[in-house]
Amino acid sequence: MKTQSESIRERCQNYHEKHPHVWRLFQQFAFEKIELGYKHYSSKSIFERIRWEHDTGPKTEKFAISNDYTPYYARKFHKKYPDYDGFFRTKSLPSEHRYAA
Fold first, then answer.
1. How many CA within 13 A on the CB side of residue 24?
2. Which of 38, 70, 78, 81 is the most buried (most CB within 10 A)?
3. Helix (H) or strand (E) holding 55
């Protein structure tokens, strides 16, 4: 039986495959903060900026991104850029210990 974390991770991966531009923006906005001298930043704030960027452009399609994906994008960033491991403060995922419905 899958845990909630595994289920969310699968949904996040499916979302990522359909919306690769979100990952590009996530990286871009994280590196902007790093270049400004930030030692830590909020992955949730980056998600909010991605939403804002989409809302200020032409309205061609409905855009949505789940807050459930925030910790997975942060961990993906740390894995891809180990020099910046810890830039996003992450906690253990309570969903790792709960079974999916």
1. 6
2. 70
3. helix 43-56
Q: What residue type is assigned to position 45 of the chain?
A: S
Q: Would you say 78 and 84 are in contact if contact means Cβ atoms under 8 Å apart? A: yes
Place of tokens 């995922």: 93
| pLDDT, mean of residues 38-42 | 97
pTM: 0.82
Q: Distance between alpha carbon 77 and the CA centroid of its chain, in Å?
A: 8
Q: Is 48 exposed, middle or buried (0-12, 13-18, 19+ CB in 10 A)?
A: middle
Round to whole Å and give the CA distance between 50 and 42: 13
